[in-house]
Specification:
The chain is an all-alpha fold. It contains six helices and no strands.
């Protein structure tokens, strides 16, 4: 009976690939916790991570469903790995259960990777908007400088130009 239980557990064993820096700290933390059967810790890590990003409204809008789905997948893995009387099931049912656990595991990995992709996209958008702000400030500065130069030119040449125009008008009127 113990041998059968170990064989079933070996079939349902989940491996974390990569390191935290390679796959992302959230993905590594959650996947490691799930593989070590610390399901509540994995859900807590998801919720803490989500809470740390709650101040970014567009992030919350884009990732809320992914976090809910990830929690559901963790709970599904937990339910399937802790299935009552697992050793009493037929070999086909055990393999089917093992296959479902692996499918949920892969889907969880994809879901967490999607969260990382969304974060990267938002960072790119933020960098682009910062670039637009810098360009707008430079444009406004140049425009103010040009207006200042034109104003100074008109003030310094305004009186002589006014005298010149008035003189030309007087000469033209005297001729006629």
């Amino acid at each position: 009976m113990a041998v059968l239980k170990r064989r079933i557990e070996k079939n349902m064993e989940l491996q974390v690939e990569g390191t935290g820096s390679h796959v992302g700290s959230l993905q590594h933390t959650v996947m490691t916790a799930v593989s070590e059967k610390k399901y509540d810790e994995a859900c807590d890590a998801l919720n803490k991570y989500k809470e740390s990003r709650k101040y970014y409204p567009s992030y919350a809008i884009k990732t809320d469903k992914l976090f809910v789905h990830a929690e559901e997948l963790i709970q599904a893995i937990k339910a399937k790995k802790n299935f009552p009387n697992l050793a009493g099931l037929t070999q086909n049912k055990q393999e089917e259960l093992s296959q479902k656990v692996k499918e949920h595991w892969e889907e969880l990995r994809i879901c967490l990777r999607r969260v990382k992709t969304i974060e990267r996209d938002l960072e790119t958008e933020d960098a682009k908007s910062s670039l637009w702000v810098v360009r707008a400030v430079m444009f406004a500065t140049m425009l103010i400088l040009i207006v200042f130069i034109i104003k100074e030119a008109l003030w310094s040449m305004g009186t002589p130009l006014d005298v010149f125009v008035e003189d030309m008008v007087n000469r033209f009127l005297k001729i006629n």
